[in-house]
Specification:
215 residues, alpha/beta, Rossmann fold, 2 domains, 6-stranded parallel sheet, 10 helices, 14% strand, binds magnesium ion
Length: 215
């Protein structure tokens, strides 16, 4: 007989672009730098450079990098402002998210957030979303893929999980490593690359809900 735990349906959900309108969030974020006399354009350029160098968004790196170009800027205050901005991420959550997460909880899904990022800053952004009450667990990993972390936390009978993410490389990688999983790619912006390897590609959370109803 299966124990209760192994019967539990488990879903891993991504944060940026999947739940958060990261494009809107970033536009407002780059404006934040203007309060410190740094143009939004320079802030954005420095952001792109940082992504190339360290592969992720680290506000400490970002502020220090801009500090070299703008020596008059109080980088300590800037860092604090950048961390603080993440606490307002609630304003940028996609409109269909709350309904979807409520649906999951009502239908007894085990909901785990799985996000890649610079841990301390990303945790602030996740907390600021006001969505943590819907998650049984939050994983923020400092990695370039999600399969490695899933391999660490999952036991064999658990490999029938559902995985939702916007990123083509991450969804393809999870499907490759966990062929029994149900992988859903969500397309939030028209320029996103669509996977032809995953189980489903959806345009919003309501479509994702229809898929889960059949699982
Ligand atoms: Mg994402």
């Amino acid at each position: 007989m299966l124990n209760k735990k192994s019967q539990e349906r488990k879903i891993f959900i991504d944060f940026d672009v999947t739940l958060l309108n990261t494009r809107l969030f970033k536009n407002a974020y780059f404006k934040e730098f203007e309060k410190f006399g740094i143009s939004g354009k320079d802030a954005k350029e420095a952001y792109e450079v940082m992504k190339k160098i360290i592969g992720k968004d680290n506000p400490y790196f970002h502020a220090a990098y801009l500090g070299k170009r703008y020596p008059k800027v109080d980088t300590k205050r800037l860092k604090a402002a950048l961390i603080n901005f993440r606490k307002q991420s609630k304003n940028y959550v996609f409109k269909d998210v709350q309904t979807f997460l409520k649906y999951l909880i009502i239908n007894k899904w085990r909901v785990e957030l799985l996000s890649i990022g610079y841990r301390s800053a990303q945790n602030k952004k996740v907390q600021g979303s006001g969505l943590t009450k819907f998650f049984h667990k939050v994983h923020v990993v400092d990695s370039d893929n999600k399969s490695d972390h899933l391999k660490k936390i999952l036991k064999k009978p658990d490999d029938h999980f559902v995985f939702i993410d916007d990123n083509i490389y991450l969804v393809d990688d999870v499907k490759k490593n966990f062929p029994k999983s149900t992988v859903i790619q969500i397309i939030r912006y028209s320029h996103q690359l669509k996977s032809d390897k995953v189980d489903h590609v959806v345009g919003n959370m309501n479509q994702a809900k229809h898929i889960l109803e059949k699982i």
